[in-house]
Write a structure and sequence with these properties.
There is one protein chain. The protein is α+β, with helices and mostly antiparallel strands. It has two domains: 257 residues, Rossmann fold, CATH 3.40.50; 131 residues, Galactose-binding domain-like (Jelly Rolls). It has ten helices and 20 strands. The strands form four sheets. Strands 3, 5, 6, 8, 11, 12 and 14 form a seven-stranded antiparallel sheet that branches. Strand 16, helix 6 and strand 17 form a beta-alpha-beta unit. Helix 3 runs parallel beside helix 10 and helix 6 runs parallel beside helix 7.
Length: 407
């Protein structure tokens, strides 16, 4: 940032014992968003938020993009629950999700359950070559069986995400058309958009569970790249997009990333990508910044006014041998790039690296059972703590948009 006076420091407001300052290695006073107070994208986002929350009309779409931290689901769902808890009368659509566990050995977020009797073929953006075109989710499963189906059950009873508009994203060279099973009824698509590979199902009654049927005859296949859950309610939608091991170039290689993103048209993107980019010894900050700017350009081709929050990499270690680890000194280098990107794009930084305690702090998180033994990932408790800290910082600023009550 050019001037310290142009940075807004949003101090942490601890409101519950579960988020109290019980860990002396966490820098709670650094739990804030940092951005230029004249940054037009951030101010525009806050203005849209204020209009939505006070008028009760329209939607705010937030998309959180990352790697395994996001795919695991605990982190983004913690943030999602905090936002909906703070604004319970402004819960919009669930947004995009992906049936990760329809494939073998692929972990699924906990807030929805996937049942698939026959595991499907998996393709992910982290592969060097994509045999099939991928979209926004960066991952796909391919069905080849006549009885193939994906059951979806919304499992977070704390949030009512009942949906009456379901969009199945996918393609088939053999013209396989998905069906939707709701209760004991099998429904054809309300309409099909072949230009965008969308199969749209409009329901008369909202549902929180359904099955996508993919009836493939011999020699046929259908590749599923995402499922969008919509409804007619005004409010906030928080979609998380994550692929284990993903770096920024992996999303750049997704051919239909922009096409699918138009379904969401995000007002705010939370970037949690970078831990995999900076994991190796040959980390190039110039290449990292260039790749990020390309991704930002693709998002702004969908919404030129989109705002960005850059989450700096968590502190991490590299495995150097059996039971031997060395601190990853690329963390501070990546952190500098995130601050530069925020300044260049009018975005904000949530300095996770600093909040954790800085270099070598991951070991203290591990000893406190907040991080896993690989010294890269957090435990479920750790992800909830990180999610609550981020939500505290974001809600602190969003609360400023609330209009004072007049009796």
């Amino acid at each position: 940032m050019k001037s310290r006076t142009l940075i807004v420091l949003l101090l942490l407001a601890v409101t519950a014992p579960a988020r109290g300052q019980e860990y002396d290695f966490i820098r709670y006073d650094s739990n804030l968003l940092r951005y230029d107070s004249n940054a037009a994208p951030m101010q525009a986002f806050f203005s849209r938020w204020e209009r939505m929350t006070t008028s009760g009309t329209g939607n705010i779409n937030i998309v959180h993009i990352g790697g395994s931290h996001v795919q695991a689901g605990t982190l983004p769902n913690t943030i999602r629950r905090r936002l909906t808890g703070a604004y319970p009368d402004r819960i919009g659509p669930r947004g995009m999700l992906f049936p990760y566990s329809a494939a073998a050995r692929c972990n699924n977020p906990p807030d929805y359950r996937i049942h698939c009797f026959e595991k499907m073929l998996l393709n992910r953006c982290v592969a060097k070559e994509h045999p099939i075109p991928l979209g926004l989710c960066g991952i796909a499963v391919t069905a080849t069986d006549s009885l193939a189906e994906v059951q979806v059950v919304l499992a977070d009873t704390g949030i009512d995400y009942a949906t009456n508009r379901i969009v199945v994203l996918g393609h088939s060279d053999q013209q396989v058309v998905p069906q939707l099973r709701v209760g004991d009824r099998d429904l054809p698509p309300s309409y099909i958009d072949p230009r965008t590979d969308r199969y749209v199902f409009n329901l008369t009654t909202p549902v929180d569970s359904f099955a996508v049927l993919l009836p493939c005859l011999e020699g046929q296949q259908f590749t599923l790249t995402g499922i969008y859950l919509g409804n007619r309610r005004a409010g906030v939608s928080y979609t998380s997009i994550g692929v284990n091991g993903a770096a920024v170039p992996d999303y750049l290689r997704c051919r239909h990333f922009v096409r699918d993103l138009r379904l969401l048209r995000p007002d705010l993107v939370v970037f949690g990508i970078g831990i995999n980019d900076a994991s190796g010894p040959n980390f190039d900050t110039a290449v990292f910044r260039h790749n990020y700017l390309q991704l930002i350009d693709s998002i702004r081709s969908v919404n030129p006014d989109c705002a960005f929050v850059f989450v700096t990499n968590n502190d991490s270690y590299r495995k150097t041998g059996r039971r031997r680890y060395s601190v990853n000194t690329n963390g501070p280098l990546a952190r500098e790039v995130f601050y530069r990107l925020a300044a260049e794009t009018g975005g904000a930084v949530w300095d996770q690296f600093e909040i954790m305690g800085g270099l070598k702090s991951m070991d203290r998180w591990r000893l406190a059972r907040l991080a896993q033994t690989d010294r890269v990932h957090f435990t479920a408790t750790g992800y909830r703590l990180v999610g609550n800290l981020f939500a505290d910082a974001l809600l602190q600023e969003l609360d400023k948009t609330r209009k004072p009550h007049t009796p």
